[in-house]
Amino acid sequence: MTAITTRIIAEPTEADHLAILNPLLAFNEAKTGDDRYRPLAIALSDETGQAAGGLWAKFYYDWLFVELLFVPEKLRGRGLGASLLLQAEEWARNHSCNGIWLDTFSFQAPGFYEKQGYTLFGAIDDYPSGHRRMFFRKLLSVASA
Predict the structure, then answer these.
(1) Is residue 31 in some structural domain?
(2) Within 13 Å and on the Cβ side, how many CA atoms surround 120?
(3) How sure is the predictor about 47, in pLDDT bands with cuts at 50, 70 and 90?
(4) Residue 114: how many CB atoms within 10 A of its CB?
(5) pLDDT at 1
(6) Domain span including residue 136
(7) CA distances for 76 relative to 5, 26, 71, 80, 81, angstroms
(8) Cα three-residue angle 26-97-37, rounded to 5 degrees
(9) What is the Cα–Cα distance from 39 to 18, expressed in whole angstroms?
(10) Pairing of strands 99-105, 63-70
(11) How many distinct helices (H) and strands (E) make up the chain?
(12) Is residue 116 a contact partner of residue 137, using CB atoms and an 8 Å limit?
């Protein structure tokens, strides 16, 4: 039997990341088939065409995960966040997604997501200390698109 050791890598490289990720992805694919992974970006641009926030998501296993959604404070109150989510939902329906999920902190926008029809399905208290990390989802009916 081959000896196996563990070590903490203080400054891991991308190669260290891939050494874990690639065999995990291969294992997952062997169990579930192709995850159909693809990224989605919906950009906000200012009048000069410069990036001013937007939405970044990842589609896999028939769900869309919204990893990032940001509207600068000076642009808030115009419905841009809701528009970004609606566009992501339309994209997700067109790609036969079961739903969308995301996470946010209690000091960010949980009320905003609830107003958009997202429901809380989990939370981690004191992450960061004194706050909560909150997980929301919205089930999509492809037939209603």
Answers:
(1) no
(2) 14
(3) confident
(4) 13
(5) 85
(6) 37-144
(7) 51, 42, 6, 7, 8
(8) 30
(9) 18
(10) parallel
(11) 3, 6
(12) no
Does some domain include residue 11? no
CA atoms within 13 A on the CB side of 103: 10
Place 46 in a pLDDT band, splitting at 50, 70 and 90: confident
Dihedral over alpha carbons 131, 133, 109, 39 (to 10 degrees): 150
Residue 132, pLDDT above cutoff 90: yes
Residue 101 belongs to domain with CATH number: 3.40.630.30
| In a domain? residue 82 | yes
Domain membership of residue 131 (yes or no) is yes
Per the structure, how many domains does the chain have? 1
Q: Which of 127, 88, 27, 94 is nearest to 102 (CA)?
A: 88
Q: Across the beta sheet with 132-139, what order do the strands follow?
A: 38-45, 51-60, 63-70, 99-105, 132-139, 119-125
